Amino acid sequence: MLLSPAYYEKLYQQDKLTVSAGMSLALGAVTAAAMSLGAIRSRSSSTDGVVNDLAVLCFVIGLHAMLIGFAGWFAPLKWPGLMPPITLISFLLGTAALASGLWPGRKFSDSHTNKPSDHTD
User: Fold this and answer.
1) pLDDT for residue 108
2) pTM
3) Residue 69 pLDDT
């Protein structure tokens, strides 16, 4: 089994999943279900609704990553190659998606087709 202390030592404490690891797994399952439901719902929703749903979904995916890697974010000297952890990048991108998706006053066109221009050259 891939989800074991041998592969993911930091997710376990005394051979049991930590609380943050359990929450991360639960959020991952909820996100997978939300993606499936979102695909069905997007067929009948407005573009603004779909963008809002995707923004929230991106943020939840960022939270999912944060729960696993949060502890290592504040030790930059331990980052491999001094590069920021992928969990930090995922959380920041999810937060940015939420902020931009829910930005007040933004509007998207509900047109899903390209209409030819009315004028000629």
Assistant:
1) 59
2) 0.69
3) 87
Q: Judge whether 110 lies within some domain.
A: no
* Cα end-to-end distance, the chain, whole Å: 65
Cα angle 46-49-53, degrees, rounded to a multiple of 5: 140
Q: What total number of domains does the chain contain? A: 1
Residues of the chain under the 70 pLDDT cut: 1, 41-45, 106-121
Q: Which residue range is the domain that position 24 belongs to?
A: 14-74+82-101
Q: How many CB atoms are closer than 10 A to CB 15?
A: 7
Pairing of strands 12-13, 16-17: antiparallel
* Bridge partners for 12 per DSSP: 17
